[in-house]
Write a structure and sequence with these properties.
single chain, 134 residues, alpha+beta, two-stranded antiparallel ribbon, globular
Length: 134
Amino acid sequence: LPRANIHADLFRDNAMFEGTHLTGLIDFYNACSGPMLYDVAIALNDWCSDEEGVIDGPRARAFLGAYAALRPFTAAEAELWPTMLRVACVRFWLSRLIAAEQFAGQDVLIHDPQEFEQRLAQRQKVSTPLPFVL
């Protein structure tokens, strides 16, 4: 898969806005070199999910279409898309479980691990494919 330096934690709470203008990104603790598709999956799992964690189709298609307009997806990425969505869910489910155990009783913000356990179950079937043109 195409690789680059990625944020690897691009959740909404790591993006700063003034109105609709993006003014900054924070929390580069997990930044690394990796598959760009992984970064897209992490972001989509947060930015394009509804309150129950279900992928919002119109929002996801807009997100993926805007991304693809700048960097078209490859055939390999299109094939691995459903798997990458699940990999991203597993990563945050497990990291949140570890954090909950490690920081139990401390004054540390712990995100609910069940949120991504539930999303992983929902991502067993993915109905929002990558926009891919041969």
